[in-house]
């Protein structure tokens, strides 16, 4: 009988990451009877076409098997509702494993539902171990809680693996596999498409900036949000800034009555293929998104991050990302000056961000489910010394 994996998604960055894992599962386990089947659980934390549906279509993600339909609720209510609804699903039919991704409310809620319903059910966290050190950030709490009850940890960097070990996770449970968001980028690189507004806005390659903003620290105060938008508009010195606006941010701009400078062109949230085309051809991207700082690092596009810290330090140490602070106009102006002076460092790709993370994850998961034990040596050739002195596992496929 096939083993059943529940895979949980709920918000935009989850869809991008899961696309790579599902693609790999379809390749390796194309038909029933091959050993593994999965149920895609969508919490509908993000639910409309622009924040959810478009990604399923563009990235060939199958329709969810189960939709928890939580919709828009306050954070704690949303988490409570997801726990309650997913627990009911689990009680009705127990899977053999649950996979959660990233750091959104759906991640922590379904992790808790899993462990409270069946403490023995293996829980896997993809993109585990990321820490920015700021417990005021809601996503940091989601990361810490999810990791504290997960059984296996797939990480995007050695630093994330180290964070887990420092928190007492057994090294044998941690697997540095690379980055599924980058897998999806490589898979779709040749499919990226010019946005429909390209000509209307008179955009040209390397002739505009892209802006995204949705972190709570940047949008929950009218003063901070207004200052950030004004600073970016001024620092761009007349060059168009295209701003696909997250629904929460749009609501806050409206509630605070902020008048956005005409140099910033606001659009709806964009589909993946058009948005990544827009980033790839931009002079630079200004953002507070974690995922976007990873994609710009691989695309070699300068990234100015409007935050004080990052859980993805490799994007700054190796990649094209620069942290300028949550509300520091002086730094924003300096960053744009550096861009115009042509002094931005284009960097290099972080280790194992090679488009094969999902392959490593699926092989490992299949190994556990088949053998019923976690002995990695039955599944992999383990060469932990290949990239220097590390004490956790790095998975290399033969
Ligand atoms: N993204 C998109 N359209 C947009 C904005 C972002 O397709 O209008 C994609 C982006 O390329 C990346 C992901 O959404 O793959 C990042 O999601 P988000 O910034 O919402 O989440 P974070 O990474 O900050 O958790």
TrEMBL record:
Keywords of the record: Isomerase
InterPro entries registered for this protein in UniProt: UDP_GlcNAc_Epimerase_2_dom, WecB-like
Keyword Zinc-finger among UniProt keywords: no
Ranges of residues in domain UDP-N-acetylglucosamine 2-epimerase: 35-365
CDD domains: GTB_UDP-GlcNAc_2-Epimerase
Pfam short name (any one): Epimerase_2
Key word NADP present: no
Family from the record: Belongs to the UDP-N-acetylglucosamine 2-epimerase family.
NCBIfam families given in the database record: wecB
This protein's name: UDP-N-acetylglucosamine 2-epimerase (Non-hydrolyzing)
Species assigned in the record: Rurimicrobium arvi
Lineage: Bacteria, Pseudomonadati, Bacteroidota, Chitinophagia, Chitinophagales
């Amino acid at each position: 009988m096939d083993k059943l994996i529940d895979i949980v998604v709920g918000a935009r960055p989850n869809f991008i990451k899961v696309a790579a894992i599902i693609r790999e599962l379809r390749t390796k386990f194309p038909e029933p009877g091959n050993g593994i089947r999965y149920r895609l659980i969508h919490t509908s934390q993000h639910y409309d076409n622009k924040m959810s549906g478009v990604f399923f279509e563009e990235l060939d993600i199958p329709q969810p098997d189960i939709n928890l339909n939580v919709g828009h609720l306050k954070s704690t209510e949303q988490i409570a509702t997801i726990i309650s609804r997913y627990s009911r699903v689990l009680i009705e039919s127990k899977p053999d494993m649950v996979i959660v991704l990233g750091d959104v409310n759906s991640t922590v809620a379904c992790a808790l539902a899993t462990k409270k319903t069946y403490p023995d059910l293996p829980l896997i966290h993809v993109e585990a171990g990321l820490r920015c050190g700021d417990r005021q950030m809601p996503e940091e709490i989601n990361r810490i809680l999810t990791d504290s009850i997960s059984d296996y940890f797939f990480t995007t960097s050695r630093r994330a693996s180290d964070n887990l070990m420092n928190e007492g996770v057994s090294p044998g449970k941690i697997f540095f596999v690379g980055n599924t968001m980058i897998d999806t980028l490589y898979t779709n690189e040749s499919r990226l498409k010019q946005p429909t507004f390209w000509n209307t806005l008179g955009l040209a390659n390397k002739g505009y900036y892209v802006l995204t903003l949705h972190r709570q620290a940047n949008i929950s105060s009218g003063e901070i949000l207004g200052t950030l938008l004004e600073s970016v508009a001024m620092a761009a010195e007349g060059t168009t800034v295209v701003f696909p606006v997250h629904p929460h941010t749009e609501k806050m701009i409206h509630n605070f009555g902020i008048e956005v400078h005409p140099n910033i062109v606001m659009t709806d949230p964009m589909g993946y293929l058009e948005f990544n085309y827009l980033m790839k051809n931009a002079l630079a991207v200004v953002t507070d998104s974690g995922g976007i700082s990873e994609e710009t690092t691989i695309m070699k596009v300068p990234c100015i991050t409007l935050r004080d810290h990052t859980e993805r330090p490799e994007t700054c140490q190796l990649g094209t990302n620069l942290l300028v602070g949550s509300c520091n106009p002086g730094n924003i102006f300096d960053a744009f000056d550096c861009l115009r002076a042509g002094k931005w460092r284009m960097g290099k790709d972080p280790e194992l961000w090679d488009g094969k993370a999902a392959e490593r994850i699926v092989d490992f998961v299949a190994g556990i489910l088949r053998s019923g034990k976690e002995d990695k040596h039955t599944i992999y050739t383990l060469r932990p010394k290949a990239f220097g002195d590390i004490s956790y596992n790095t998975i290399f496929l033969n």
